[in-house]
Amino acid sequence: MRPVEPGFERQDDEHARDVPGDLAHSIGAPGPDAGADEVRDPDADRAEPACEAQVVPSTFPEAFGMVAVEAAACGALPISAAHSGLLEVSRAFEPAVADEIRPLLSFPLGDGAVEEIAARLVRWLRLRPDRRADARRALSDAARARYGWEGVAEGVIAAARGRLDELPVPGA
What we know:
- It is a single chain.
- The chain is an alpha/beta fold.
- The protein has a domain at 49-166: Glycogen Phosphorylase B (Rossmann fold, 3-Layer(aba) Sandwich), CATH 3.40.50.2000.
- It is built from seven helices and five strands, in the order ββααβαβαβααα.
- Strand 1 (2-5) and strand 2 (8-10) form a beta hairpin.
- It is globular.
């Protein structure tokens, strides 16, 4: 294991990864006591990092794809429905991964959604373990850089100083 951030460790082998501490802390997000509307299963902090992939099949418009960000921060491939804030997050991760991984990040809504999800999972799991490890590492790094406290704070400071060209373009 090699430390990534305080409270967040990742193994790059193909066995389950044990991540001590609060997942929210690992990506620099507020913990469960930060807001009354946040409900968090205490076992999720250990379960998410052990996953190879996490499907976010929501058909409801999402303002932000936090579940996909959490999955990526843990090194799991986030496979999200291709709409709203979920698609925005998927597109934000595309530059971080190899061309062969990009189509796996989202799936189109429709009658064939279950088959689309299954095809992406099978393709992901059939990749060589070293290719998956590279992608997991890249997704985790990208999630922490863009959505962790430091990345968000840099964006707020840039906006406050009028440096709008430094901000990421939503949906790009």
